[in-house]
Amino acid sequence: MLIIGKVLGVVLPLSLAWLLRRRMVWENGIAAIWVLALGFISPDAKLTPYIWAALASLSIIWWGLFEARQERINLGILRFGLTVICFYFSSVMDKLGRSASLMGLGLLFLVLGWGLERARRKLVAKVKAVTA
Known about the structure:
The chain has 132 residues and is mainly α. It folds into 2 domains: 40 residues; 89 residues. 84% of the residues lie in helices and 0% in strands. The protein is built from 5 helices and no strands. Helix 1 packs antiparallel against helix 2. It starts with a helix and ends with a helix.
């Protein structure tokens, strides 16, 4: 049943992508391989899932630039920010004291928010210039 579920979980979305996108289905194929490879990451791994998620976020941003789609850029930026925050909560916050971790979280929100918004605006402006 597990194998049938995995096969259907890959074949059905790729079939729909082929019906809707035809020649651009290769990008969805890469995403499917990416998700299947995620199943081979050990649950005991400390950094690997976060690195994998950050690379996936950057891939979504690249995909948005490649197809000149602003919503994919926004989604990739959001995913990257959430990946960093999840890493902070699960790996950094428990090693610091309560007040130090909360101050670090506030600083992380300020710096990460500023940096990601700045990068997002530049990328969206680049897409708007290409589509105009």
